[in-house]
Specification:
By secondary structure, the chain is mostly helical. The protein has one domain (12-328, 331-508). Helix content is 71%, strand content 2%. The protein has helices at residues 2-9, 11-29, 33-64, 71-87, 89-104, 109-118, 123-147, 162-170, 187-209, 222-239, 241-249, 253-280, 287-309, 334-340, 354-377, 379-389, 391-396, 401-427, 433-448, 453-476, 493-508, and strands at residues 344-347, 350-353, 478-479, 486-487. It has a two-stranded antiparallel ribbon. A two-stranded antiparallel sheet has the order 3-4. A hairpin with a 6-residue loop joins β3 (478-479) and β4 (486-487). α3 crosses α19, α5 (89-104) crosses α9 and α12 (253-280) crosses α18. The two termini are 26 Å apart.
Length: 518
């Protein structure tokens, strides 16, 4: 009875999935076996990258009810940060000290809130003084950072631009710049300026959001531990700057790529947490303002990337494990690939790229399972779902729901950054890569169900497969029945086909394939 009731309830969904499966089977019959396998793997690769964007977007919207239109830009930023770590580790190391010192003041958040509530500010002073302090801290930080020695490329000079650096890196040449001249920079004065600016900025922000409940905060030594740790870390990074740079520069490219992935994901998580706590949190009850804000952040992010890395497109070299082209390549099995580190592999006499068509889909599957287990089988997932259903009840149990929501937003952005750093070696880096993948992700979510995490995976898979089948048939053509004509889809049909699929599915299932009626 239960099975028959399930079929009756989901009859439309079952019919739609059966029709889609039939269409893909028909598409497979129209091409050779090797072409079908290669097209299938390429579709899985594109679908996996789309899923990493769509899954983060779905988590944020499904659990926090926030439409983050800057998600594609954060995907792009993850790609550029990963490129920087992988190709220019000296730049990363130079940035560690100022970054640690800048964040150190914010580790005293509870201290600042308690202190601001003990200082008797008048209403006018409480409105004016924080903005004055923020302005002063901005001047201090700008004056110090402007002179801080950071080894970085020059966008205006083609020989030292990211395009040239990427080309040299792909040829195996050393692309590190000479150590930065520290003449005219006083480390003691620079450190003092960074710490003072960070402390003043953090205190002013705390004064702006301090409330009556904050007066009950109990200050202990633990409230100062984060500040001390970051302060010592900043000093150590400065002292061992050259040694750490040499270590990363001589590190095997496989391990360096792993470091790039971890740094890009951590940067995405940090940016997501910063966005949620400072910009999104005050606008939870104003969805239109959320859309406007995230759209503006997207435009700002693109311009920042253009200013730092330039406008031209360039590629990120693949790690050694996926870049072999010599003896034994292309590989005929996974054992041969492991032995010769081939960039390509023969599958049914067809050549596939190991990084694109094997590694990326595997990572997509791992992320799908890991996040699903986190949401469904962990205490954190239970708290997240309970907080969405009844926030007041969860807070009454002593759980900081705001912190949990910040974690969800940061996790969603971290997934987008992971997709970006994986996309960099496979499709290259471009200022518009975020917009194209965000559009694919939105289409995938509309197809699979906007608030459904499994729906994000299913929709992304359908988008990736459909695009790659259309591209393949654009090469081999589609014979028209009863006519001596071969139809070859043109490139504009590729995005149009996914939009058409979305429209058809939404007409039949308004909530998507796996979406639930709200």
């Amino acid at each position: 009875m239960k099975l028959s009731a399930y079929f009756r309830k989901n009859l439309t969904l079952i019919i739609v999935l059966a029709v889609l499966s039939g269409l893909f089977i028909a598409a497979a019959n129209g091409m050779e076996s090797k072409d079908f396998v290669i097209t299938l793997l390429r579709g899985l690769s594109v679908g996996s990258l789309t899923f990493l964007v769509a899954s983060g977007f779905s988590l944020i919207f499904g659990l926090l009810d926030v439409l983050n239109l800057a998600h594609g830009t954060l995907f792009m930023i993850g790609a550029y940060i990963g490129w920087t770590v992988y190709v220019r580790p000296d730049t990363l190391v130079d940035l560690l000290t100022p970054l640690a010192l800048l964040l150190s003041g914010f580790m005293l958040g509870d201290v600042w809130i308690a202190l601001s509530n003990r200082i008797l500010f008048g209403k006018r002073l409480k409105r004016i003084l924080p903005w004055v302090g923020i302005f002063i801290s901005a001047l201090i930080l700008f004056s110090v950072l402007k002179q801080y020695p950071i080894a970085i490329w020059k966008v205006a000079n083609y020989a030292q631009s990211p395009v040239s650096i990427s080309y040299l890196a792909s040829q195996g040449q050393n692309i590190l710049m000479p150590p930065v001249d520290m003449a005219g920079f006083s480390p003691l004065l620079g450190f003092a300026g960074l710490i003072a600016g960070s402390l003043l900025l953090a205190f002013c922000l705390a004064v702006m959001k301090a409330g009556k409940q904050a007066a009950t905060i109990c200050i202990t030594w633990r409230n100062f531990s984060g500040f001390v740790v970051l302060l010592l870390a900043g000093i150590l990074f400065f002292v061992f700057n050259n040694a750490l740079t040499d270590f990363l520069a001589n590190l095997n490219s496989n391990w360096l790529f792993l470091v790039a992935v971890l740094v890009a994901v951590a940067s995405g998580i940090g940016l997501g947490a910063l966005m949620e706590t400072t910009l999104i949190r005050p606008l939870y009850i104003r969805p239109i303002y959320q859309l406007m804000l995230t759209l503006g952040l997207s435009a700002i992010g693109i311009e920042v990337v253009r200013a730092i890395w330039g406008r031209p497109e360039f590629t990120m070299p693949r790690p050694e494990l996926f870049a072999g082209t010599g003896e034994g390549c292309p590989a005929t099995s996974l054992a041969d690939w492991w032995q010769y580190h081939c960039s390509t592999m023969l599958v049914m006499d067809g050549r596939i790229r190991v990084f694109n068509e094997i590694l990326i889909p595997v990572i997509g599957i791992i992320v799908l399972v890991a996040v699903w287990m986190l949401l469904q089988r962990s205490r954190l997932g239970m708290v997240i779902r309970a907080g969405v259903q009844d926030r007041e009840m969860v807070e009454a149990l002593g759980i900081n729901v705001r912190r949990v929501f910040t974690l969800v937003f940061a996790l969603g952005v971290g997934l987008a950054a992971l997709g970006g750093v994986l996309a960099a070696p496979s499709i290259g880096l471009s200022n518009l890569m975020g917009e194209s993948f965000l559009l694919n992700a939105l289409i995938a979510l509309a197809i699979g169900g906007l608030t459904s995490y499994p729906g994000a995976a299913l929709g992304s898979l359908l988008v990736g497969l459909l695009q790659q089948f259309i591209i393949k048939y654009g090469q081999i053509g589609i014979p028209i029945p009863f006519m001596d004509v071969i139809f070859k889809p043109s490139p504009p049909i590729v995005p149009a086909s996914t939009i058409l699929l979305m429209v058809i599915i939404l007409l039949i299932l308004p909530n998507g394939l796996l979406g639930k009626k709200e």
